[in-house]
Amino acid sequence: PVPELPGKSAFFVGSTDEFIERRRQGLQHFLERVLQSAVLLSDSRLHLFLQSQLPVPAIEACVQGRGPHSVTEAILRYAMAGPAWGQRGDGGG
Predict the structure, then answer these.
(1) Which residue range is the domain that position 47 belongs to?
(2) For a 10 Å CB count at each end of the chain, is N or C smaller?
(3) Which residues does the UniProt record annotate as the domain PX (predicted)?
């Protein structure tokens, strides 16, 4: 099972900085729990999410073999091209 994401509260009482720090800590804890799961750690979508700037639809297309690159190619292309690659969502850059 995927760990639960920390909640977002529209009614947070306190400063914006406090909210951001609590949210950051919650997301960090969530990610640490995800990375402790062998099943989740082996998921191609997780690797693309963490190792590229591709939007979710492009990640799904890549994993399903409908994108212009394999998962490995997409990760390697992003690593070599830097953060600008894939921001348009078409895998180009």
Answers:
(1) 16-81
(2) N
(3) 1-56
Kindly compute the dihedral angle of the four CA atoms of residues 60, 88, 53, 18, in this order, to the nearest 10 degrees. -110
Task: Estimate the share of the chain in helix, then strand, then coil, as percent rounded to the nearest 5.
Answer: 55, 0, 45
Q: How confident is the model at residue 84 (pLDDT cuts 50, 70, 90)?
A: low
pLDDT digits (tens, 9 = 90+) for 62-73: 999 998 889 999
Asked whether the predicted pLDDT for residue 86 surpasses 70, the reply is no
Residue 3 within any structural domain of the chain: no
Tell me if 30 sits within 8 A of 5, measured CB to CB: yes
Q: What pTM was estimated for this model as a whole?
A: 0.66
For residue 50, give both structure tokens: 């963490």
Amino acid type, 21: E
Distance of alpha carbon 56 from the chain centroid: 8
In a domain, 34, yes or no: yes
